[in-house]
Write a structure and sequence with these properties.
Helix content is about 35%, strand content about 15%. With about 230 residues, it is of the alpha+beta class. The longest helix is centred in the N-terminal third of the chain and has 22 residues. The protein is globular, with a radius of gyration of 19 Å.
């Protein structure tokens, strides 16, 4: 009888822990955000990349929240157990990180910021198959370090667009990307996520990076789509 009681208590504790994990980031959907300019659009990399003509879109936007509680949430996101390996194309983000991103995308104040795929298409619209947290966790979301991001950005730049070739040399491209990352991250307290298409608008060569400065509680969206 005593064993059954202990088992019931243990099951109840596990259920409570699971519910707490699921609800951990719910408040993120209610935080107030504002769009800010941290000078990324003035970097040579973004200037040159913005000159490309896409049969879709490209934008880079930075948001922040002045609420200290949001900073605490950012710094509580679970990290992958394995080390980042530049030779492994996809290293999945933790379920905890996916939960944070889900509630961030569902934040109402972000819908007042001009983030659009195409005319009147809200960047934060979630496709039907990902509207539940359970299904959103199935969305491919990778996490990486700056070295891996640097390689990705180099490859993305060299691809150009379907209309135009990237004209800068490899050496200059590497320098521009390095300067961009120095401007973006002042130290090593950051998180970088490569997020699959949650909106269903992906028409081809879709990319979306979520670039987080943990010290400043700033999040930068780097997103583009191009299709033939």
């Amino acid at each position: 009888m005593r064993k059954k009681k202990k088992d019931a208590v243990a099951i109840g504790a596990r259920k409570k822990q699971t519910a707490e994990m699921e609800n951990k980031y719910k408040k993120v959907a209610d935080f107030e955000f504002s769009e800010i300019n941290i000078g990324l659009e003035e970097t040579e990399f973004i200037k040159e990349y913005s000159k490309l003509i896409f049969n879709g879109f490209f934008f880079i936007k930075t948001i922040e929240s002045n609420q200290e509680e949001f900073r605490n949430y950012l710094n509580s996101i679970h990290k992958p157990l394995e080390d980042f390996d530049i030779n492994i194309p996809f290293q999945s983000a933790t379920s905890d990180a996916k939960d944070f991103i889900y509630h961030l995308i569902n934040n109402e104040t972000l819908r007042r910021i001009s983030l659009y795929f195409y005319e009147d298409s809200d960047f934060f619209t979630i496709a039907t198959q990902y509207t539940s947290l359970e299904n959103f966790r199935k969305l491919p979301i990778a996490e990486m370090n700056k070295l891996k991001l640097q390689r990705y950005l180099f490859e993305i730049a060299k691809e150009g667009s379907i209309y135009e070739e990237w004209k800068s040399s490899d050496r200059l491209t590497s320098k521009m990307i390095n300067d961009f990352l120095v401007k973006l991250f002042q130290n090593d307290n950051y998180r970088i996520f490569n997020i699959g298409d949650w909106s269903g608008y992906d028409m081809g060569f879709y990319i979306c990076f979520l670039l987080i400065d943990l010290d400043k509680a700033q999040i930068t969206f780097f997103a583009k789509d191009d299709y033939d």
